[in-house]
Amino acid sequence: MNKRKNRLNQFGMEVAMYCLKYGLEKQELSALAGVDASSIKKVGTGARSGVTVIPLVRAAMEDYAQDHEPMPYSECGEG
Q1: pTM for the structure as a whole
Q2: What percentage of the chain has pLDDT greater than the value 90?
Q3: Domain 10-67 in CATH 1.10.260
Q4: How close are the terminal C-alpha atoms of the chain, in Å?
Q5: What is the Cα–Cα distance from 19 to 26, expressed in whole angstroms?
Q6: In terms of C-beta density within 10 A (0-12 exposed, 13-18 middle, 19 or more buried), how is residue 57 classed?
Q7: Residue 75 carries which DSSP code?
Q8: What is the C-alpha to C-alpha distance for residues 28 and 34, in angstroms, rounded to an integer?
Q9: In sequence order, what are the residues at sequence separation of 6 or more whose Cβ sits closer than 8 angstroms to the Cβ of residue 49?
């Protein structure tokens, strides 16, 4: 039996790319936004509606981006 994959929706990809760009873990982003990390995961895979979570996370991402510089490309990972 194949393992089920939870594919990311547009918001899930947005969060994943943001975390990669700024060197954050999703747990850190969830703490900044004041939401549970599992909520971000469930909204990012479409398992839960993001009516309340998405605005909080996007506001936290904007606030964090104003105070921090993105990581240089060479530090974002291999290749």
Answers
A1: 0.83
A2: 75
A3: yes
A4: 33
A5: 7
A6: buried
A7: G
A8: 10
A9: 43
What is the C-alpha to C-alpha distance for residues 57 and 29, in angstroms, rounded to an integer? 7
Judge whether residue 51 has pLDDT over 60: yes
Is a pLDDT exceeding 50 seen at residue 79?
Answer: no
Phi then psi for residue 55, to 5 deg, are: -60, -35
Is 60 exceeded by the pLDDT of residue 24? yes
For residues 11 and 15, give the distance between their C-alpha atoms in angstroms, rounded to a whole number: 6
Can you give the residue ranges of every domain in the chain?
A: 10-67
Reading the block at residue 42, the tokens are 């469930």
Instruction: Please answer whether residues 48 and 35 qualify as being in contact, where contact means their C-beta atoms are separated by less than 8 angstroms.
Output: no
What is the band of 37 on the pLDDT scale with cuts at 50, 70, 90?
very high
